[in-house]
Design goal:
The complex is a heterodimer. By secondary structure, chain A is an alpha/beta fold. Helices cover 23% and strands 26% of the residues of chain A. Helices cover 44% and strands 8% of the residues of chain B. The chains are: A alpha/beta, B mainly alpha.
Chain lengths: 413, 105
């Protein structure tokens, strides 16, 4: 009998999961439907470059429906809620869509309205975010008119998508103002609730050093309680203040609203708890989660969705066949970190291994945790791979879902 | 691993002073732990948070972050900072005898 697989979300995780499932399952074995409220797939890694005039907004968008393999149905609709007991997605408007297997791939959502003052006076005038296309475009205009003063780059709280992006923004801003010859008139400050630039020790050392090299001040353990746009101040819950003439803020993130409207599915923030090895949801055995929507201890990053894709697709076919799931996802994450002046770092890590020095994916690969031209070219090349290899669910040669240990300088035990 | 004596009982803590075995915690240790964090008296509101932290740890295996505390404990983030000025999630976890809440990556 034909099984019905419904994938919620046509972004990175949903698209590659649907395409991988289509490759694994014949048309009479399963019908695959992807549901998303809009038809604009944004290449999110490109957002970082928009404020510096290095990527046009239009160049980052493609039609979602064109990214699917033949035999995947795209349905443009918003989701009202999931009825886990009836195995039904209820669309906005009330139409029910039944499923045998559900894949939650609806990512994370920005909730700037949850921070006092953030969407008040000054929002999109002197307080910006580059985490949305509109925000990145507005910020480009503001930066191009900026002739000097204090810029605060602030992470309000974790989790956020791509935790290295705000640091990259600082590095690129340093290079941008140097290119314009006004770096000495710009005071850059990185503000974070964490106790360092990054959470993992070796990487934190490297990135803190880079901030210092580039003259970016670091304010740590700063939990922003209020953004005072009119007064040009970030105010922490414990009463400290960081002044700014222009603020670049990473707003709080949540899961999607429909998750909160679906009893038993998500946690307090609307993310969906899942087994970190199998990616099966904790809510029901026939519900799987991929990408930023998942509450698992990984970064919220496209590379995690990419590496999880193969395992989610295989586990869904195993579930449908009544076989035990493969508990093999290791939390593999891989990020290029732009450091300015056409150089980049690369980090590669998983649940158990922090980002280390060495080379990726083996001894003769890209240098890890070291600035190089090669990594910058890697980051640029990745855009092509994203649309042509990653989303269609093909394999990138020599890059596997399991984190490679070869080439890494592992600490001696 | 260091050990410290609270309320007549020897307990194991890590370098930062968090309990490594939450089973060793007793309510009567809390006032002493609080004083070490600069909180002279534990009010009813403090206790509401401490008990909530224990409950969350027991059901989920990790203490909540400040933001989740603000959404679920019945105490707003603003008040949490008034109660535990040095950082609610960390301080309350220490007083509640549970490990430091798992930082997000």
């Amino acid at each position: 009998m034909t099984k019905r697989i419904v994938v919620l979300g046509g972004g990175t995780g949903g698209t590659l999961a649907a395409n991988r499932l289509r490759r694994l399952l014949g048309r009479d074995a399963a019908e695959i439907t992807v549901v998303d409220p809009d038809d604009e797939h944004v290449y999110q890694p490109g957002l970082l470059f928009v404020p510096f005039g290095k990527a046009g907004a239009g160049s980052l968008i493609r039609a979602r429906h064109r990214q699917f393999r033949p035999g995947v149905t795209f349905r443009r609709a918003a989701v009202d809620r999931i009825d886990l007991d009836k195995n039904e997605v209820v669309l906005a408007g009330g139409t029910p869509v039944g499923y045998d297997v559900l894949v939650v791939a609806t990512g994370a959502r920005l909730v700037p309205e949850e921070t006092e003052g953030l969407t008040g006076p000054g929002w999109m005038e002197k307080v910006f975010t580059f985490y949305t296309l509109d925000g990145a475009v507005a910020l480009e205009r503001a930066l191009s008119q900026f002739t000097g003063g204090r810029i605060a780059v602030a992470v309000l709280d974790m989790p956020i998508k791509c935790p290295v992006a705000p640091l990259e923004f600082c590095f690129l801003a340093d290079a941008y103002f140097r290119d314009r010859g006004i770096r000495d008139k710009v005071d850059l400050t990185y503000v974070t609730p964490l106790d360092g630039a990054f959470t993992k020790a070796v990487c934190n050392r490297e990135l803190s050093g880079l901030l210092a090299d580039k003259g970016v001040s670091l304010v740590t353990e700063f939990n922003t309680g209020e953004v005072d746009g009119a007064g040009g101040r970030l105010v922490s819950y414990d009463g400290r203040a960081v002044g700014f003439d222009l603020a670049v803020v990473i707003p709080l993130h949540s899961g999607q609203d429909y998750v909160s409207r679906s009893p038993g599915l998500g946690d307090e923030l609307g993310f969906v708890p899942a087994d970190q090895r199998t990616l099966q949801s904790k809510a029901r055995p026939n519900v799987f989660v991929i990408g930023d929507a998942a509450d698992i201890p990984t970064s919220k990053a496209g590379s995690v969705a990419h590496f999880a894709g193969e395992i989610v697709a295989r586990n869904i076919t195993r579930y449908l066949a009544g076989e035990p799931l493969d508990a093999v996802f290791d939390g593999h994450t891989n990020c290029f970190i732009e450091t300015g002046s056409r150089k980049a770092l690369l980090i590669d890590f998983n649940y158990d291994t922090e980002p280390l020095t060495g080379h990726f994916p083996g001894r003769f690969g890209l240098p890890l945790l070291r600035q190089s031209r090669l990594n910058h070219l890697g980051k640029l090349a990745f855009r092509w791979l994203y649309w042509h290899v990653l989303l269609p669910g093909r394999e990138i040669p020599a890059v596997h879902s399991r984190m490679p240990a070869a080439g890494k300088h592992l600490p001696s035990r | 691993m260091p050990t410290v004596t609270y309320a007549g009982t020897q307990v194991a803590v890590n370098d930062e002073g968090f309990f490594t075995d939450p089973e060793q915690w007793r309510e009567e240790m809390a006032p002493l732990l609080a004083r070490q964090e600069g909180i002279a008296d534990l009010s009813e509101r403090h206790w509401q948070v401490i008990k909530f932290m224990r409950h969350e740890y027991e059901t989920k295996g990790t203490g909540p972050t400040v933001r989740v505390l603000g959404k679920t404990s019945g105490v707003s983030v603003k008040e949490l900072y008034q109660l535990f000025p040095k950082g609610p999630a960390k301080t309350a976890a220490k007083i509640a005898g549970i490990p430091k809440p798992r930082g997000c990556i």
